[in-house]
Specification:
There is one protein chain. The chain folds into 2 domains: about 110 residues, 3-Layer(aba) Sandwich (Rossmann fold), CATH 3.40.50.720; about 180 residues, NAD(P)-binding Rossmann-like Domain (Rossmann fold). By secondary structure, the chain is of the alpha/beta class. The two termini are about 25 Å apart. The chain has 12 helices and 12 strands. β3, α3 and β4 form a beta-alpha-beta unit. The protein has a 7-stranded parallel beta sheet with strand order 8-7-6-9-10-11-12, with helices on both faces. A 5-stranded parallel beta sheet has the order 2-1-3-4-5.
Length: about 325
């Protein structure tokens, strides 16, 4: 039996490493530098990454033995798919493993915005009793517009409905009947902007979605809307969002992702109406264990020439 060599570039939970090690030789090089990856990738049949490592055309050019790249998570925007195809390398991901974790963070950000939890906590730690200043709002009776009604969007809608919210759904890739089955009222994007009190984004970053939430989009929204994005940085035009916060069109934003990560101490991150977290949507013990198990099995199946559940290219 062929003994494959697998490189882990961004860490993987023990359950995934154990599965891989049972059938292959595994090197865990968590946080490997891009220069070292270019030098060493030629020795490996498989590469497993998360969102940090960029799998560029140069990596594929250097990877003479590479057969499969596995993304432990959903988004594959850090992998050059065209280069993968041109070098006959399969790309797989684990799209279902982190859905619940991201959905729960989304609701956490929504609650944090309406109840100003971060501000209250900061005040307490400075011995300031801000009770009279923190008159929040309720989610009950409000309208949530979900842009992207895939797995995560549907999970967010399910949880938001338990708060008594009305759920609107927009997704150009999903039929209206299916959006209804997933618990949302299908609407156009403009209708969603006009009606929603809260907007949550659950889209991949593509040429079509890059900066789609821009100045023109904000101009269509209900004044005082609150926006949450735990999908991908770059979907929101961050300069336009900052302007919308300053003008009051947007009452608050919960952001787990940014166009540049880490974003540094930007005006957006430091804005008092923004709750910012460091891309932790998938960062739960449970989600990472599921992702590790799923991607390990998928990479081993790809190496063995077996049917794949989550082949991207």
């Amino acid at each position: 039996m062929t003994k494959y060599n697998i490189l882990i570039a961004d860490g993987l939970k023990d359950i995934g490493q154990a599965l891989l090690s049972s059938l292959a030789s595994v090197d865990d090089r968590t946080d490997i530098a891009s220069s070292d990856l270019l030098n060493e990738i030629k020795e490996y049949d498989a590469l497993i990454v998360r969102s940090r490592t960029k799998v560029t055309p140069q990596v594929f050019e250097a990877a003479k033995k590479l057969k499969v790249v596995g993304r432990a998570g959903v988004g594959v925007d850090n992998i050059d798919l065209a280069a993968a195809q041109s070098h006959n390398v399969t790309v797989v991901n684990s799209p279902t493993a982190t859905s619940l974790a991201v959905a729960e963070l989304t609701l956490g950000l929504m609650l944090g915005l309406v109840r100003e939890i971060s501000r209250g906590d900061a005040g307490m730690k400075q011995a300031n009793w801000l009770k009279k200043d923190l008159a929040g709002a309720e989610l009950f009776g409000k309208t949530l517009g979900i842009i992207g009604m895939g797995r995560i969007g549907a999970e967010v809608g399910l949880r938001a409905s338990a708060f008594g919210m009305t759920i609107l759904g927009y997704d150009p890739l999903i039929q209206a009947e299916e959006i209804q089955k997933r618990g949302a009222l299908p609407v156009s994007l403009d209708e969603l902007y006009i009606q929603a009190d809260h907007i949550s984004l659950h889209l991949p970053l593509t040429d079509e979605t890059r900066s789609m939430v821009n100045q023109q989009a904000f101009a269509k929204m209900k004044r005082g809307v609150r926006i949450v994005c735990a999908a991908r940085g770059g979907i929101i035009d961050e300069s336009a969002l900052l302007s919308a916060l300053e003008s009051g069109i947007v009452a608050g934003a919960g952001l787990d992702v940014f166009a540049t990560e880490p974003p540094g101490a930007s005006g957006l991150v430091n804005h008092p109406k923004v709750i910012a977290t460091p891309h932790i949507g998938a960062q739960t013990e449970e989600a990472q264990a599921r992702a590790a198990e799923d991607i390990a099995n998928e990479v081993l199946a790809a190496l063995a020439g077996q049917p794949l559940r989550w082949k991207v290219v």
